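ARCHIVE CARD
CATEGORY: sequence design from structure
SOURCE FIELD: tokenized fold
FIELD CONTENT:
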């Protein structure tokens, strides 16, 4: 098949298989088809995206081959009563995940994601106790597709050694905490632009950054103010700052070797 495909209303049966053609397509599936061994989708050639929405409490493990992007969102508190896990152990071709958080009051984890190099995030969690854990390759870039966080989002990146967080939309990005256990280099801010060539503008703030292995922190404030209220990075030796907007690091506390 060489076109977009929507099968949200189709009973696919057990272990169904879908093979796409050599074009870039979007395949929209029902939430039930994101369960383990429900449907196997081969995207074929091109750059393909699989979409499913309203993830509720439980684990989702889509079977994907030659699909490069996942576009998913979480349900709100009406369908969330415990944690949500998206496991990409059967979707090794996926390198980009677009994840919209719908204000639910539970933890969200993306696991088995060793080939994922980028996340596009939007929305917010319900409380500062909610944790979003994003598994990845060793190099990871996180951008926002819309306003993100509102200071209630705990971000954990357990695998990235080089972590970049920057604007992908002209809106604010706010975290309660960023925990980057393996990151030795962290880049905050960038120079991305929309299709008209206009650079995105928006603030980026983290109440707390905890990065025990961090050596180098690069901050680019060209697109907006950058704020880290409390920085815990005992191995940090280098702080590089560029840009013409306000930057504040460690105003409430800092543990570094600087």
């Amino acid at each position: 098949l060489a076109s977009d495909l929507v099968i949200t209303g189709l009973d696919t049966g057990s272990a169904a298989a879908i093979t796409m053609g050599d074009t870039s397509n979007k395949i929209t599936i029902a939430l039930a088809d994101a369960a383990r061994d429900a449907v196997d989708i081969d995207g074929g050639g091109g750059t393909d995206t699989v979409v499913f929405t309203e993830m509720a409490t439980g684990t989702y493990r889509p079977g994907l081959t030659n699909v490069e992007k996942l576009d998913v969102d979480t349900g709100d508190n009406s369908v969330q009563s415990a944690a949500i896990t998206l496991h990409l152990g059967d979707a090794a071709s996926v390198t980009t995940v677009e994840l919209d958080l719908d204000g639910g009051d539970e933890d969200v984890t993306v696991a088995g994601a060793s080939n994922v190099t980028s996340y596009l995030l939007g929305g917010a969690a319900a409380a500062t106790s909610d944790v979003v854990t994003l598994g990845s390759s060793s190099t990871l870039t996180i951008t926002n597709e819309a306003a993100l966080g509102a200071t209630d989002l705990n971000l954990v990146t357990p695998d990235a050694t080089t972590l970049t967080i920057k604007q992908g939309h002209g809106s604010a990005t706010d975290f309660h905490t960023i925990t980057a256990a393996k990151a030795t280099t962290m880049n905050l801010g960038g120079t991305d632009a929309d299709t008209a060539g206009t650079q995105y503008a928006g603030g980026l703030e983290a109440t707390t950054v905890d990065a025990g292995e961090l050596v180098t922190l690069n901050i680019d404030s060209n697109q907006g103010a950058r704020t880290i209220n409390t920085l815990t990075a005992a191995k940090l030796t280098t702080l590089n700052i560029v840009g013409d907007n306000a930057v504040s690091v460690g105003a409430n506390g800092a543990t570094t070797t600087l």
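CARD ANNOTATION: The chain has a mean pLDDT of 93. DSSP finds no helices and 23 strands in the chain.
SHELF: design records, drawer C
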